[in-house]
Amino acid sequence: MIQYLRHNIRIYPDRDQSNSLMQAIGMARLSYNFAVDKWRSTPSGTSKPSPLNIDRIFNQTKREIYPWLNDSKSVCFGKITQYSIKTNFKAALDNCYKRKLGAPTFKRKSQSDTASCDNQAFYIVGKKLKFAGVSTLIRTAEELRFSESKLISCTVGRNGKRWYASINVETKVNENQSHSKPDTFVGVDLGLKTAIQLSDDTQLLLPASALAKKAKRLVRYQRSFARKLLSSRGEKTRSNRCKKIQEKIQHLHNDIANIRHDFWHKSTTLISRDFETICVENLNIRGMQNLKTLRSKLQSTAIGKFLPMMRWKCVKNGSKLVIADRYFPSSKTCNNCGTINRNLKLGVSSWICECGSTNDRDLNAAKNLEDLARSSTRISTNVELPMVCGEVKTLERNIESRYEEVSVKVKTGKKLPVLT
After folding, report:
1. Rounded to whole angstroms, how far apart are CA atoms 369 and 400?
2. How many CB atoms within 10 Å of residue 382?
């Protein structure tokens, strides 16, 4: 089985290399905006040009409009513009027509600081990154983890003064992998107080102390930025000290995001390597964000990262992922007798059932999800079927026994996951 992975590596370009990378980013943004302008300026009633035709038009006119493309880096720039139009702009059109996310918009300088190219325009050897047409080598923080895999593309971007390279590779998945706890089932309940609650009474908590220190420092920097932003006359200014504080705020936001990202990566890796069958809930994160009481907590925990990571890590580690129905009452159902507590409110952390058992909200939900994972292959037809790795397929139906056979089908998808 083939899987697409992405390795983010920090790079350390010098001043000349940084200027070259900034030119490449500007070229990617310029070519993308050129494609958007050609697509939008087409008169109504006529067919819109395809990304292939737009790329052909851009190559015919770029040397007249942009004569600086005739330098030694034109090979790399050509691959970057081709990838920006044929891949990125084509993905924007697919989102417009298939997913109905709106027409492609222009990229701004402050929001699009990335440039991508295919495997014909770069290669990586050890701790060095080389682009076609560029004589110098860019130093990287570490070697590529998938050195024996096939290179697909490379995306270079920056966050403040920090530069990163995202290497996309195509690798094979070892389907005959062994788990530390073979033939085991586990239910995973996500929450705000307890980030991850497993059905075996294991809790995985976010590093609250590290996040609190960063948040406290962020408040101090933001107040300093607000004071430096206003002059003595009350007018907004952009002094050098103001820009320095702004860079510190940007790096601090990046550090906070990295702490959360690291936690979800380590947690999903631990669960997928230990257990063979995992059952999780399909939470409506966007709907939960509409509640004022949960909005800030959801942003601080970022539980929406869990399910996408768990999907591809189960494929990588050979685990089975069962996704319960969104309306499955995991928290309201008593794991002891099966009674559903319809009056259970959101702020109640524990409740007593009619049978006399005291149920912890998170642990009870995790145990119910574990029971659902155990019955995922043979369950009654009057119960909503769970999704197994995104898809449930019925092979045969026996009306007398009222049971169904559900096949487990793994879907890798086309999205490139992130591996740290």
Report:
1. 27
2. 6
What is the structure's pLDDT at 386? 44
Low-confidence stretches of the chain (pLDDT < 50) are: 378-420
What CA–CA distance (Å, rounded) separates 191 from 41? Answer: 48
Q: What is the SS3 assignment for the chain?
A: CEEEEEEEEEEECCHHHHHHHHHHHHHHHHHHHHHHHHHHCCCCCCCCCCHHHHHHHHHHHHHHHCHHHHCCCHHHHHHHHHHHHHHHHHHHHHHHHCCCCCCCCCCCCCCCCEEEEECCCEEEECCEEEECCCCCCEEECCCCCCCCCEEEEEEEEEECCEEEEEEEEEEECCCCCCCCEEEEEEEEEECCCCCEEECCCCEECCCHHHHHHHHHHHHHHHHHHHHHHECCCCCECCCHHHHHHHHHHHHHHHHHHHHHHHHHHHHHHHHHHHEEEEEECCCCHHHHHCCHHHHHHHHHHCHHHHHHHHHHHHHHHCCEEEECCCCCCCCCECCCCCCECCCCCCCCCEEECCCCCEEEHHHHHHHHHHHHHHCCCCCECCCCCCEECCECEEEEEECCCCEEEEECCCCCCCCCCCEC
> What is the Cα–Cα distance from 300 to 320, expressed in whole angstroms?
29
pLDDT, residue 234, reads 59
Amino acid at 192: L
In whole angstroms, what separates CA 398 from the centre of its chain? 41
**pLDDT at res. 75:** 66
Q: Do residues 27 and 81 lie in contact, with contact meaning Cβ atoms separated by under 8 Å?
A: yes
Tokens read off for 320: 């089975």
- Total residue length of the chain: 420
The pair of structure tokens assigned to 204 is 């995985």
Q: Which of 28, 262, 349, 319 is nearest to 157 (CA)?
A: 28
User: By the 8 A CB rule, do 129 and 137 touch?
Assistant: yes
Residue 265 confidence (pLDDT):
92
Whole-number Å distance between alpha carbons of 335 and 353: 10
Q: What is the percentage of the chain residues whose pLDDT exceeds 90? A: 21
Residue 55 CB: number of other CB atoms within 10 A?
Answer: 22
pTM check: above 0.70? yes
Q: CB–CB of 300/218 below 8 Å?
A: no
If we measure between CA atoms, which residue out of 268, 259, 316, 305 comes closest to residue 283?
Answer: 305
Write down the pLDDT at residue 302. Answer: 86
What pLDDT was estimated at residue 166?
A: 93
